[in-house]
Here is the input.
Amino acid sequence: MLIDLHTHTSFSPDSDEPMKNMIERAIELNLDAYAITDHCEADRFFSRDNYKRPQTDHEYDIYNYNIVYENSVSAICKAKELYPKLNLLCGIEWGQALYDMKATEIMCNDKRLDFVIGSLHELEDMPDFAFIDYSQFDIDNLLRKYFEEIARLCEKPVFDTLAHLTYTLRYIEGEQKIKVDMNRYKDIIAQAFKSLAYNGRALEINTSGLRQGYGKTFPTLDFIKLFKEMGGEIITIGSDSHRACDIGKGIAEGIEIAKQAGFRYCAYFKERKPNFIKL
Ligand SMILES: [Zn+2]
Ligand SMILES: [Zn+2]
Here is the structure.
C-alpha cells in the first residue's frame, strides 16, 4: 500500500516539475491514492494592493495566487480525465486561511476540490518562516505565536488535514541548528489537536523532514501520539515532494510512525470526505 497526499507541480512557485512528470511517476509507483496539492496562500490570493504587508525582495514575496490556484485546479481536473485509472485527487495546500476570509470562502465553495491541506507558512505582517534569521528573533515568542495561530486555525477548520505541524523546526533546528524544547508548547498543541479531533479533521504526517537536515517527520511520533490521546482519528501521509523523484519518499516510515502511535488506518480524501485504508 502506498499513497502520497501532499505533492507540488510547476504551478507552485517553488517547483519546476511539470504536472505530467509527477503523474507519470505516481503511476509508475502504482500509488493507491495520489493528491496534487499546489500552493495557494490565502493572504496573497489577490493583488498586492489588497494587503498591508511590506514589500521585500524575497523571490516568493508574490501575490495573485488566484491565478496559480485556477491554473492548478483546472489542470488536475483535465488530468483526471486523461488518466482515469489513477486515483488522482484534486487538492490544494491552502496557507493562512484566516488571514483572508474572502479568498478562503472562494476555495470552500469550489466543488472541484477533493482535498484541502491547511498550512501556516507565515504569521500576519511577518515574512515566510523560510526567510527569517532566527538568531535575530525571540524564538520562544515566535513559536508560541505560531502554535497559537495553529490552534486558531483548528477551531473552525476549513481544511481536511493540518499540514506539517512544527514545520518551522525545518529552519530553526534543521538549518540554523538552534535546539528547541517542544515541551513548552505541548499544552497549546494539545488544545489544537482537541479542536481538530472534535471537528473530525485529520493530522498530516509530512515526511519531507526525513529528506532534509531536520531528519524527522513533521510532526514527530510523540505529537502523533498526542493527537490520538486528544481523540484524533484521521491521519493523512504526504511526502511534500516538489520533484517527481521525491514522490512516495518516506511514506513507508510515515506509515510505521502512524502504527506506532496506535493508528490502524490512514485516510485519503475524495470530494472532501475521508476514505480509510488499513495500515
Ligand atoms: Zn507547506
Ligand atoms: Zn507543500
Notes: The domain at 3-278 is CATH 3.20.20.140 (TIM Barrel). The beta strands are 3-4, 33-41, 88-95, 115-119, 161-162, 202-206, 234-238, 265-270, 273-278. The chain has a mean pLDDT of 96. The pocket of zinc ion (ligand 2) is lined by residues 6, 8, 93, 240 (CB under 6 Å).
